[in-house]
Structures are given as structure tokens and as C-alpha cells.
């Protein structure tokens, strides 16, 4: 009996020893993995590690060098194209998206039928910026965006029937050298000068007999809002289903076409569900939102918000949503005391704890030992994961979504910032009128957001960004610079 007890006790002791060794191996493995992640994060902006290794001066020099490289590539792109005359730019060519420029502003009776309306009209809003004191090079922002979008229109099947034009709102358009260069390659509109469609140079401000070119506004925000309104109104001269509005320092990410296509498909499906089931009341109620039962098996968004009332209230009967926002500054995408950000952090910790338990189970299986879930291992996994993601930054973790275009998510948009936007055609006329009637000194991005909130029209932003913001020098004040980390995030 004593022998059996001793053997049994030795067996239990050995199993406990194996189990403890396995758990410490798990902890050591997770710690090593965390260290590797931190080392990788040392090259990622917005992480605590990165900011401690790089000075603002070195980051600014890096961002300037990257911008110069992109500008040189853009110049090379246009140097390989054939310059077009004004008559060629005005001509409609079904085989060239850039030249497919309808003259509906000067020929209002020549309105295309719905079956022939292009999918997108793309407008690049540009204004001259003052160069930094330490360089004689042009900033080249509009060259970069012009080259990127021109290539997109010519080569991506989704945009082959689209129109692209440059909207130069500089008070002295001839001094904007980069924009003047594009006159020979892209359709071109000037607020204070000539246009490929002459009628656009004489656009009146909505509700007024005054022409845009005669309006002089001393306030920076008023001028920016008026410029944006002019370019939207000019874009309306070219009928399309959607209007993509880019500021000149916004560049599309390679995933932009695929994510845009997927997002529009999701929104169309969601809207159809809302229309089909708004009268029946067949909605599932979740923790934070409700959505139609027809979407319960395959919810269209990972993060979204539907109207509080399932019926659609919109300023026009055919609009399915207000807008899509493609960029929100990365510096404001970190963790914060907000519901969505806290849920993100909690879910990342749970994933880390689950991975730690899986590793522990695999170690026990390899050693042919019994295994029970350990609270210690779970807590260590959760805590280490939280520490790592907080040090690395939410922006870096979000980059993992770029593994697949299906992992991008739609969510409720912030009010700020409109470097790149998509507006459905039905909302455009009233949006133009709303912006033109705005009170003085109001920012254009906040007024755009107010318009869609006022009409209870759901709008969305895409995360992570599918448009890169490269404009380190802003147009709102003289040679003003923004946080440099944003401009070395993409190389």
C-alpha cells in the first residue's frame, strides 16, 4: 500500500512539474513574442517606442524627402504623357476617362440619359501653398494626386467611365505652377480664371447674382468653404452617380478601388433591407444598435450605426446615404475613453488571452500531460497584450486590417476633416446650397457634417484610411506644419 501511495504521489508530482514548466514556457513565449512586436513597432509612427527614437527634426526631414521622391515620380508620369490642346480636353472620348468630359455646363440640353451617366466624377481641389523657407522646390501635392488619380481613371476597370478634373481655386491661378502644368494633361477649372468649360468661370453663388470669381473673403475659413462650394458646384456640371472630392494633398491607397467597391455594395444592400423591412419592424436589437433581420446572417459592417428610426429620412428621395469619408488624421485614431476605442482595446486583450491558452494547451498536448484552462495564463496573456497594444498604438494594430480588403470597416464618421469624400449625386445640389448659406467663420468640414445630421441621413467613414494625407504644409496658414508622424506613416 505504501509503495502504491509513493508511486502515485510521484506521478502526481511529475505531472504538476510538467504542467508548471509548460505554463512558464507559455509565459516566456508570450513575453518573447511581445518583445518581438515591440521591436517591430520601433519602425511604426504613433507608437511610444517610435516617438522616443526619432526627433521631430529628423522626422520632418524624412517626410520632406519622401514628398520630394513622390513629386519626382509624378513629374516623370506626366512627362511621358502627350500634352493636349484645349479642344482635345473639351472633346468627349469614350476610350479615355480623362477626356470624357461632358459639356453640359455650356450645353444644358445635352444631358445624358441615366443609362449613360458615368459612375464617378472626380474633382481635385487645389490652391497654392507657400513654400518652406529652406527649399526652392515646389511642394508638388497636386502633381502627386493628379498622377495617382489619372492613373486610376485610366487603368482601373471601376473608373474607366469616370471623369477627372482639377479645380484651381487660387486667387492668382497663374502663380500656382504645379496646377498650371496640369492644364496640358487634365481637364481644368479655375475659380478666378479660365476653364475647359467657359460657363464654369461665370458660376453664380447660389441664391445670389454675384459670381464666385467676384467674391473676396478675408477670413481663411470662409474662403476655404467658398472654394469647396465652388468646386462642388462645378462638378455638378458633369452628371454622374457619385462625386469623389479630393483635396490636392490626398493620395488613394492601393486598396482604394476594392474597398470603395465593397463599401458601396454593402451600403446598397443595407439600404435595400431598410426599405424592405421598415414597415414590418423586423429588426434585431443588439447591445448598442439594431439592424434588419435580413442582415443578421451577414452584417454588412464590423462597426456602424443605423438611423435611430429604421425609416430613411433624406433630403432627396433617391439618396441611400450621406457620404463616405476616406481619411481621418491618424494622430486622432489612437486609444481614448470612447465606447468604440475601449471595445477595441478589450477585444484585443481577449484575443491575446485566448492565444495564450491555446499555446498552453499545445504545450501540454506535446508533453502528453493533462490540461485545464489556467486563469494565470489567461490573465498574463490579456495583460501582456494590453501593454503591447498600448505601447504600439491603435494605429499600428489597425494596419493589420490591410491584410484583406474585407477587413476594412465602416463606422460612424467624425465631424472633422474632409481630404477625400464621396457624395451620392442626389445630395449634391442641396449640399451646395447649404454650404453657400453658411454663417461666417464656420469651417467647411463641420458644415458638411451638420448638413447630413440635420437631415438625419446616415454617413460613414472607412477605417483604416484608404486615402493618405501628404500635405505637411497646410493651405490654411502660411507655411504651417502639422504633426510630422502622419507623413512618414506610408513610404
TrEMBL record:
Keyword list, A-Z: Membrane, Transmembrane, Transmembrane helix
GO biological process, one term: GPI anchor biosynthetic process
Cellular component, GO annotation: Golgi membrane
Superkingdom of the source species: Eukaryota
Listed transmembrane segments: 21-41, 345-365, 377-397
A GO term for molecular function: glycosyltransferase activity
Protein name according to UniProt: Transmembrane protein
InterPro entries per the UniProt record, alphabetical: PGAP4
Amino acid at each position: 500500500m505504501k509503495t502504491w501511495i509513493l508511486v502515485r504521489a510521484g506521478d502526481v508530482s511529475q505531472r504538476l512539474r510538467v504542467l508548471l514548466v509548460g505554463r512558464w514556457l507559455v509565459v516566456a513565449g508570450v513575453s518573447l513574442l511581445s518583445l518581438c512586436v515591440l521591436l517591430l513597432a520601433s519602425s511604426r509612427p504613433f507608437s511610444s517606442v517610435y516617438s522616443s527614437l526619432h526627433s521631430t527634426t529628423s522626422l520632418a526631414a524624412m517626410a520632406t524627402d519622401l514628398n520630394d521622391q513622390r513629386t519626382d515620380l509624378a513629374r516623370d508620369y506626366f512627362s511621358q504623357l502627350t500634352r493636349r490642346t484645349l479642344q482635345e480636353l473639351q472633346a468627349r472620348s469614350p476610350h479615355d476617362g480623362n477626356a470624357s468630359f461632358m459639356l453640359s455646363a455650356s450645353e444644358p440640353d445635352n444631358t445624358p440619359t441615366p443609362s449613360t451617366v458615368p459612375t464617378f466624377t472626380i474633382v481635385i481641389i487645389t490652391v497654392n501653398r507657400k513654400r518652406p523657407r529652406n527649399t526652392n522646390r515646389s511642394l508638388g501635392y497636386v502633381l502627386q494626386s493628379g498622377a495617382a488619380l489619372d492613373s486610376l481613371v485610366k487603368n482601373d476597370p471601376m473608373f474607366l467611365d469616370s471623369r477627372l478634373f482639377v479645380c484651381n481655386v487660387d486667387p492668382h491661378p497663374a502663380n500656382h505652377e504645379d496646377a498650371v502644368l496640369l492644364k496640358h494633361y487634365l481637364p481644368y477649372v479655375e475659380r478666378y480664371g479660365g476653364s475647359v468649360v467657359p460657363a464654369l468661370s461665370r458660376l453664380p453663388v447660389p441664391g445670389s447674382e454675384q459670381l464666385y470669381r467676384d467674391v473676396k473673403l478675408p477670413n481663411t475659413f470662409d474662403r476655404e468653404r467658398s472654394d469647396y462650394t465652388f468646386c462642388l458646384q462645378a462638378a455638378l456640371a458633369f452628371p454622374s452617380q457619385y462625386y469623389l472630392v479630393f483635396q490636392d494633398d490626398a493620395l488613394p491607397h492601393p486598396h482604394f478601388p476594392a474597398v470603395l467597391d465593397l463599401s458601396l455594395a454593402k451600403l446598397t444592400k443595407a439600404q435595400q433591407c431598410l426599405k424592405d423591412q421598415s414597415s414590418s419592424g423586423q429588426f434585431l436589437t443588439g447591445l448598442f444598435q439594431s439592424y434588419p433581420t435580413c442582415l443578421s446572417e451577414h452584417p454588412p459592417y464590423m462597426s456602424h450605426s443605423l438611423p435611430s428610426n429604421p425609416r430613411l429620412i433624406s433630403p432627396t428621395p433617391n439618396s441611400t446615404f450621406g457620404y463616405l469619408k476616406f481619411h481621418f488624421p491618424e494622430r486622432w485614431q489612437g486609444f481614448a475613453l470612447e465606447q468604440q476605442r475601449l471595445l477595441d482595446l478589450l477585444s484585443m486583450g481577449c484575443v491575446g488571452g485566448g492565444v495564450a491558452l491555446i499555446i498552453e494547451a499545445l504545450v501540454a498536448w506535446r508533453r502528453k500531460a493533462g490540461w485545464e484552462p489556467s486563469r494565470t495564463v489567461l490573465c498574463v496573456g490579456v495583460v501582456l497584450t494590453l501593454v503591447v497594444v498600448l505601447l504600439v498604438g491603435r494605429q499600428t494594430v489597425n494596419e493589420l486590417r490591410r491584410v484583406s480588403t474585407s477587413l476594412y470597416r465602416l463606422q460612424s464618421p467624425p465631424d472633422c476633416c474632409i481630404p477625400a469624400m464621396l457624395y451620392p449625386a442626389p445630395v449634391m445640389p442641396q449640399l451646395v446650397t447649404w454650404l453657400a448659406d453658411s454663417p461666417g467663420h464656420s469651417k467647411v468640414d463641420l458644415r458638411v457634417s451638420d448638413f447630413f445630421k440635420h437631415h438625419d441621413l446616415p454617413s460613414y467613414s472607412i477605417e483604416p484610411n484608404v486615402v493618405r494625407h501628404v500635405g505637411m504644409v497646410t493651405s490654411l496658414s502660411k507655411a504651417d506644419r502639422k504633426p510630422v508622424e502622419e507623413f512618414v506613416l506610408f513610404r
